[in-house]
Amino acid sequence: LSAMGEPSMDPTISAADSTAQQDSLFSMMDVFLISLITGLFTYWFFFRKKKEKVPDLPRMPTVVAPVRDNSFIEKMKKTGRNIVVFYGSQTGTAEEFANRLSKDAHRYGLRGMAADPEEYDLSDLSRLSEIDKSLAVFCMATYGEGDPTDNAQDFYDWLQEADADLSGLRFAVFGLGNKTYEHFNAMAKYVDKRLEELGAQRIFELGLGDDDGNLEEDFITWREQFWPAVCEHFGVEATGEESSIRQYELVVHTDVNMNKVYTGEMGRLKSYENQKPPFDAKNPFLAQVTENRKLNKSGERHFMHLELDISNSKIRYESGDHVAVYPANDSSLVNQIGEILGTDLDTIMSLNNLDEESNKKHPFPCPTSYRTALTYYLDITNPPRTNVLYELAQYATDSGEQERLRKMASSAAEGKALYLSWVVEARRNILAILQDMPSLRPPIDHLCELLPRLQARYYSIASSSKVHSNSIHICAVTVEYKTKTGRLNKGVATNWLKNKVPEQNGSSSLVPMYVRKSQFRLPFKPSTPVIMIGPGTGIAPFMGFVQERAWLKQQGKEVGETVLYYGCRHEHEDYLYREELARFQKEGVLTQLNVAFSRDQAEKVYVQHLLKKNKEHVWKLINEGMAHIYLCGDARNMARDVQNTFYEIVSEFGNMSQPQAVDYVKKLMTKGRYSQDVWS
Length: 680
Hints:
Elements: H1 15-47, H2 72-79, E1 83-88, H3 93-104, E2 112-115, E3 135-143, E4 147-148, H4 153-161, E5 170-177, H5 186-197, E6 201-202, E7 207-210, H6 215-234, E8 248-252, E9 285-294, E10 303-309, E11 322-325, H7 331-340, E12 348-353, E13 368-369, H8 370-377, H9 386-393, H10 399-408, H11 413-425, H12 430-436, H13 444-450, E14 457-460, E15 471-477, E16 480-482, E17 488-490, H14 492-498, E18 510-516, E19 530-533, H15 540-554, E20 562-568, H16 578-586, E21 592-597, H17 607-613, H18 615-623, E22 628-634, H19 635-653, H20 658-670, E23 674-679
Parallel strand pairs: 1-2, 1-3, 3-5, 5-6, 5-7, 19-20, 19-22, 20-21, 22-23
Antiparallel strand pairs: 3-4, 8-12, 9-10, 9-18, 10-15, 11-14, 11-18, 12-13, 16-17
Helix pairs in contact: 9-10, 10-11, 17-19, 19-20
């Protein structure tokens, strides 16, 4: 048979031959197969892509990132301290008081240290009893609506959740608050109460400072009774008179690389030349002023609307947030201080902390020039506190002037009265004091050590990011007044902002700023009615609110009633944003616009009078519409008067007694339906 065209086998071949041939054929096949298998195996073994063998290197020890030393106990033991003074500070005053208390300690044979609670683990409070004669003091400011300051937020959260046994802890609390605010000294009261609940022993009563009165006097009065209580508790005595101890030493740089010198930056050197997000208090963004226009038609005051360009900054904000601005002092004031003290203001220097263990190496960014320090870093316009006067007294060559300064810094009633009248009420800043005391000529480096830091100024943002995502609007009025001594005092930030003229890439129109989040928020549901009360520059956040409600309406959302109560002195003088508000009303976004012109008639009319006039509608919005109420402006009079008006409306239409009405409004606050953004 032939298969597949192959030649058929010769029929003459014998069977034996055939068998031998087959054996030979199979042997060749076996050899072929074996060779093939061997070849494939050899290839697989030698030429396959081998998995790289990991070299057997000696095992390296695990590198752990250095842990920040956040144990204040270990630091106190290492440096021989037994008193720690924690501060919750938003504007620097609580920090200043903490520093003063920690310096006081040496007079009693004790050693103190001021500490930022943000930098330490406060659960270590339970270990403070490991240190002999130990004491924790808390200088706590209250911020906003009874909130902790930014740097005390973690401490507050810990206190709320803590289940620690603080039975070995001895403590005292001094609070910094303002009686014009609803939640006066809420943070200090809470810390004082909570520490006691956790078993700590209070060695002196809670001090409540009132910035609406005389905070400095409140602090001195508390302090002069606090130290005797400490002495009695620990069985120690004062070692002598209060002495002037320098905290920093001066180093003058004669040969310095100017690229290493601070020129006004708040944190990182050259941060204004090389901007990097995220932007915050220690790393502000330099925003260009793109618009600066006067809002009022006439009158003595200057109201202004500014727009800051935040393009490419990655800064995000919500309606109701605050913009913080770092101002600069007036160059003429700086120059006058330099002239009086006979100083070359362009000298490059550093003030270095004599306590090498301190977290605070310098009082402000160093090295820098005296000019930069007095312009960007130090507060030269507010009346100095008594501790500054005490330290400066030694430099007065006239005995009468020296005695006067020491008296004002004393705790005697006569000294307090003199300080109140000659410094506080006369609004004498450091320049005025130097001018009125010709023999007082302190070294400029000691003056720079004593003056408090120049603080950022906060403004309610007058725009909505839904409409203006790349700009932040500010509404402000310049502060300017005559003092009892006949001097013209000007507000630092508002007069600085007034001169920020928009120009192409000009440094003169740059503003260092950052955004601070707020709880002042529109309702989650756009259909919820809102009642906004904001006379004067209190209109600012409501411009943002109304812009946002207009945007929501354009998106097809159902927007609830939007009612505004605004007030100013004269209709044709200081009616801010008149055209814009009229347009919003015409478009139906502002469902009601009520304006009180306080001085256009014989009898003054304020926003609370208009609320009373519309009391039935106001109650209907609150009771049936579940409206949210917003209040912005002066805390001292307006906010209180408006709140009292709401008590009356609730009492009348809700058929409640006065205490019940007060409780009703307080509950609105708790539920976030009555929000305030006020200042004093």
